[in-house]
Amino acid sequence: MKVTQSQIITRGLTVHCPNCGGKTLFPPGASLRLNKECPQCHLRLEKDEGFFLGAMSLNYGVTLVVFLAPVALLWYHGTLSDTAATWLAIGISVVVPVLLYRASRSWQLMLYYTFFPQHLPANRRVMSAVEDENV
To answer: Domain limits of the chain?
Structure first.
């Protein structure tokens, strides 16, 4: 394979295209709009209808576990008042998912191609004439 799983993971964590490694997932100046395909290698970034749901689930899970669970624990142990915990949780619930949007879209692509690296155009074998006749 041309693109290894460690490269896919590195590219996913740094918000780069999993196929070519270009910083092309999002158009310049557009903070919340994913390109339909990579401008450099033409990898389709939206695989199917609803492909974004994986990214949405990742974003929700990270927000809940990393940011809201500590607020709940601090409230439970009496460190935060009811009002402070409520407003902090509301603020986190609104701000953190927006801040993690780009990363979660990249993480979702990373997870998909980590499990299916053969789906990357760079990793597809070119069928020889003999294999083509047998198909």
So the answer is: 5-125
